[in-house]
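User: tokens in, sequence out, please.
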């Protein structure tokens, strides 16, 4: 009883241990196969694109495989792919899954496979784009694919009409580099929503463009701030196109670094000088949990210094980078997740030549670069990234900050800048779970608005649904974590598992992670 009395009040009230009720294993080895994972919200299933080189042969055996919400097999379909085509990305809309391939020999030739996951019907089509060679992402909307690509040193979007077998480059999106760029394929309004940064060398502003599912420009507007603030990048809310919330990061003069978070209700109008009436700014020091990744004594010194500068009418300049996720609807507002990261190289002077995007995370085993180097920059020395924490902020529909929290991450390093954490609501509709997978362990935190909760909750990835299993996990690689349905995540990767008696096995695994 004395030990319990000394524990923090949250340890008993909020600690939550997930279960792993289902596991799927495919007898695949990492060096001889590739598996691409796509979850489907419509029926809570999962579709895999499996590329397997059987018996060490050089011939690819590619198939689509579908599994239900309990990871039981539904069907498997072979897919014939010409040897010249390399896989680029999976994406989905409703029950439709799309696989995008690119010719190794003629990069402006693309091939798209569409799969109706309900009945397993396949269709495919080839596109000769003539000028598009560098492909960054694809998202499906209204049965079409919006493909972000580079043309003549400009970032643009190509629309692939799969029914007609035609393509077009969209003149409404043609941005000079460097730029920051986010893209939401809004399935509710059937609009493609783009947010792009523009700079005159001293200040940055944002331009928001909304396109129909067939690529027609429906709306274009600018968002800018007064004084020395500049808007770096932002995410736009899904749903009602007449009442969009824009949230993102702002800077003080130096666009390489974020000073804090801004929010704007795009329906609130502008001042005579063109500034949004609803713009609100939240310096990182004004967030309750932003400095949680620091030791308490250091965080206190930082806040004290910030207060002294504020009293002398100055501001502390921050040097943070923020990778933002898509906005998630929550109650009568939205939740924004942003990961604080640092380039691991010493020289980051060229960092401003990176541009950003939002994306569906199901590409190349879930590992998708969300920032791409400017092709003009030859001396970019960033060779990796470390994420220190993920902040989560709750906003009402007008952009008023209601609460914030943070999840301190444990030595998370990536070769490319990717989303590390995932967010799912709990069954009570009031709390969230934030989680990430690192090797064979799931790290997670329960988010209850601004209430404190532990940052060090960890469970191992199980090799069997049976809790008394004696198997030993030897190695895990190419691991990843996806959001799934309800309060569940889907963990995946390659593993070598040793049984207590008999030989070990190499597998590609899927594990259900349930917070229920």
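Assistant: Sequence out:
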């Amino acid at each position: 009883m004395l030990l319990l009395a000394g524990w923090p009040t949250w340890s008993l009230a909020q600690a939550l241990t997930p279960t792993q009720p289902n596991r799927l294993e495919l007898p695949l080895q990492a060096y001889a196969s590739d598996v691409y994972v796509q979850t489907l919200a419509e029926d809570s299933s999962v579709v895999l694109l499996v590329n397997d080189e059987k018996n060490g042969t050089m011939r690819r055996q590619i198939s689509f495989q579908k599994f239900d919400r309990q990871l039981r097999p539904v069907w498997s379909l072979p897919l014939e792919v010409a040897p010249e085509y390399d896989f680029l990305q999976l994406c989905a809309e409703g029950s439709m899954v799309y696989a995008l391939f690119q010719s190794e020999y003629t990069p402006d030739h693309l091939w798209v496979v569409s799969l109706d996951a309900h009945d397993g019907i396949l269709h495919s089509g080839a596109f000769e784009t003539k000028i598009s060679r560098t492909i960054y992402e694809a998202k499906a909307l209204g049965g079409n694919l919006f493909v972000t690509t580079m043309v003549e040193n400009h970032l643009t979007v190509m629309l692939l009409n799969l029914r007609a077998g035609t393509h077009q480059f969209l003149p409404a999106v043609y941005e000079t580099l460097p730029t920051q760029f986010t893209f939401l394929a809004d399935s509710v309004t059937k609009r493609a929503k783009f947010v792009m940064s523009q700079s005159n060398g001293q200040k940055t502003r944002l331009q928001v463009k909304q396109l129909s599912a067939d690529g027609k420009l429906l709306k274009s507007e600018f968002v800018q701030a007064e004084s020395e603030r500049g808007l770096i990048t932002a995410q736009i809310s899904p749903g009602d196109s007449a009442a969009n919330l824009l949230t993102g990061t702002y800077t003080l003069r130096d666009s390489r670094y974020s000073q804090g978070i801004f929010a704007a209700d795009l329906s609130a109008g502008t001042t005579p000088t063109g500034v949004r009436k609803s713009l609100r700014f939240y310096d990182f020091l004004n967030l309750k949990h932003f400095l949680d990744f620091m030791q308490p004594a250091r965080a206190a010194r930082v806040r004290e210094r910030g207060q002294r500068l504020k009293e002398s009418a100055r501001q502390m300049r921050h040097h943070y980078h923020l990778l933002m996720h898509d906005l998630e609807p929550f109650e009568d507002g939205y939740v924004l997740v942003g990961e604080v990261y640092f380039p691991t190289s010493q020289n980051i002077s060229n960092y401003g030549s990176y541009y950003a995007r939002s994306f569906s995370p199901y590409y190349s085993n879930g590992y998708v670069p969300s920032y791409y180097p400017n092709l003009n920059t030859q001396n970019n020395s960033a060779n990796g990234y470390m994420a220190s924490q993920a902040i989560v902020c709750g906003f009402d529909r007008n952009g008023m900050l209601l609460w914030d929290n943070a999840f301190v991450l444990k030595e998370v390093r990536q070769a490319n800048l990717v989303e590390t954490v995932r967010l799912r609501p709990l069954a009570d509709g009031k709390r969230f779970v934030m989680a990430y997978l690192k090797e064979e362990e799931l790290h997670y935190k329960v988010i209850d608005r601004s209430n404190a909760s532990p940052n060090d909750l960890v469970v191992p990835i199980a090799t069997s649904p049976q809790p008394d299993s004696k198997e030993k996990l030897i190695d895990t690689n190419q691991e990843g974590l996806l959001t799934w349905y309800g309060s569940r995540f889907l963990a995946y990767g390659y593993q070598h598992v040793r049984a207590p008696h008999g030989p070990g096995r190499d597998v590609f695994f899927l594990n259900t992670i349930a917070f229920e």
